[in-house]
Amino acid sequence: MIFVRSRRSIVTLGAFGLGFALLFAALAAGAMRLPGGWVAAVALAAGAVAAGTVAASAGLRLRSWPLGRLGLFRDRMVVIQGRHEMRALWSRMETVTLSDPGSWPDVRLTDRLTINFRNEPPLGFKPAQFGLEPAACRDLILRLRDDARLRARLPEFDSARDLAVSPVVAGELIEPRL
Known about the structure:
Blueprint: H1 8-32, H2 38-63, E1 68-72, E2 76-81, E3 84-89, E4 93-99, E5 109-117, E6 120-125, H3 134-146, H4 148-151, H5 160-165
Antiparallel strand pairs: 1-2, 2-3, 4-5, 5-6
Helix pairs in contact: 1-2
């Protein structure tokens, strides 16, 4: 139920494919200089072509990878686009819509999801950047916002960065009321 992906495995595969392609090509060139080494050169050249194909395939898969990451947790949703991280607490969400905020009273649907909060500025992002359909993403967020039992199946938010930014405080959670 969490949609956070890493590019590390594809980058590693592409780097190894490129490295082996260069190594096999160099060995094939060296084998061609030996008398009667053309058989080994052909085999090594085939290995270089195969490793180059793996590197090219990893490059294409990396290019088609979603630009952002979306994390769904028990108490919040985390949207990471590049170096920008946005957090949205489920309890503070009021509306989740695909309509253009400035199009009222003529509602115009867009591919941009806008989440409005109580006493906070709205959060907007394009679900397609995460590899998601806009309407399906809106429905998922609305369902998670409204169904606490479904959110209980999600993992807890636990980030070393979050703990480093704010100190650990023991005790009860106090919500200030006016």
